[in-house]
Amino acid sequence: MPVLALDTATLVSSVALAAEDILLAEITLQTKKTHSEVLMPHIEQLLTMANVAKRDIMAVAVSIGPGSFTGLRIGLATAKALAYALQIPIVGVPTLAALAYGCPLPGTLLSPLLDAQKGNVYQAVFRWEQGNLQTVQPARVIRFSDVLREMGSKDQPVLLLGEGAVMNRQVILQAGGNLLLAPPHIIMPRAASVAMLGQKMLAAGEQQDVMALEPLYIRRSEAEVLWEKRHGVCL
Q1: Do the Cβ atoms of 178 and 152 come closer than 8 Å?
Q2: What is the pTM of this model?
């Protein structure tokens, strides 16, 4: 039975269907249209193309962040609505882990980067060991310049991927050394990776309460920070 996966953590809007480690279908789009405009039409189109009825979906896997606050809220609200309406399990897949999951490269450190604004990025570091993705550095907010310094000092290749890598493409290429830029087909988030990692998590017994599942923000939104400054209150 298929798992429906959604990824709206960045400007990329991606939906996928996977069943028993087989990718049935995927739609991935990066345009100026908002997720609220394209997400539901893409889900309907995906199900039609794969000839899968909504009632046949076994579970929903959704990218939970970190990433765009608005994008995460749209994706999670959609995933929770589907899981609740269909009475099926939901699993929240960390966005940075999903990015790394799409790059099974033993002997290489994987460093997904997402934009955290003002010269900062969301970063985590992973490596593959015996077919399993292991966390080396949990998700954090860090200056991009510090990422270059830390990752550039490693004694093994480091693959940089995600929108944070795209934004700093020229700097990464100029730095060279052990720092590698992921190719275009794997550098950005894909729902296929969310689906595959989500299936593995579900098989291990991981799933969340549809009412309690929240985005993994890592930091507060700009609106919250401005509110605190204006009111002199620590949230």
Answers
A1: yes
A2: 0.92
* Among 186, 178, 210, CA closest to 62: 210
Which string of DSSP letters, residue by residue, matches 24-86? EEEEEEESSS-HHHHHHHHHHHHHHHHT--GGG--EEEEE--SS-HHHHHHHHHHHHHHHHHH
To which residue do tokens 């882990």 refer?
97
Question: From CA 190, how far away is CA 52, in angstroms rounded?
Answer: 20
Cα(70)–Cα(205) distance, integer angstroms: 29
Token output for 115: 């934009």
144, 168 contact by CB (below 8 A) = yes
Nearest one of 190, 187, 203, 207 to 21, comparing CA atoms: 203
pLDDT digits (tens, 9 = 90+) for 31-49: 777 888 899 999 999 999 9
